[in-house]
Amino acid sequence: EVKKFYKNASIALSDGWFEINLDKRKLKTPSGQLFRVPNEALALAVATEWNAQDKVIKRHNMHLTSLCNTALDNPFQKSREILTQGIIHFLETDTICYRLQEPEDLVQLQMESWDPVIKWATHRFGIEVKPTYTMSLPEVGTESKDIIRRHLLSYSDWALFGYSYAVESIKSLLLIMALVDKSISVETAVKLSRLEQEYQSEKWGNVEWHHDLDQLDLQSRLASAALFIHWSSENSSVIQKASLERQNICAV
User: Where primarily located (predicted)?
Assistant: First the structure.
């Protein structure tokens, strides 16, 4: 955290991109690049994050700013293929595909809560995913992975960073796909990703304030990722100018 050094954050259009100004200073990324985003909605949301800061700048709560920095700097130089493969990897470790065999009421709760999401994915994308009740991986066919790969590659580079951030947050690609498709809400996605934890809390109790803060923080991260994916898909012509492939070529 650092002390707030500006009074107002505003946006400015330049060369088809939207920049963020902190008073008269142009915002920069951690690597020193000019901070700029592909559309006005995302720019206004980022400016709102900066205007929401009080006496100190709490960067850990500025999820949209963080996502933009990652997309612009691409610190690990990930290509579209590497990003997509990393996202698909979560399909084999998807939270809602790992089921317990006891206690009976929890088994039933998992079926009632998680099976509809799997059925939705089956009908929406024509994929097959079979949950596992052992330590073995869920059954996901090569064809199903290829379908999801093609679907993910239809998104912009920036949106893929949002997808990656989202699945890492709740460890479930199926829930994120349903969220982005607007089939479930952010609150529902978080609730379903924490189903076993919620069950244990109701049964044995919890530290209420810690539980609530953890849930709200996760909802905030997921909502930011969903908005980032949506806004990053609105203006593909501008986003394409900042494609990972072009960045990699320039780096070479």
Answer: mitochondrion
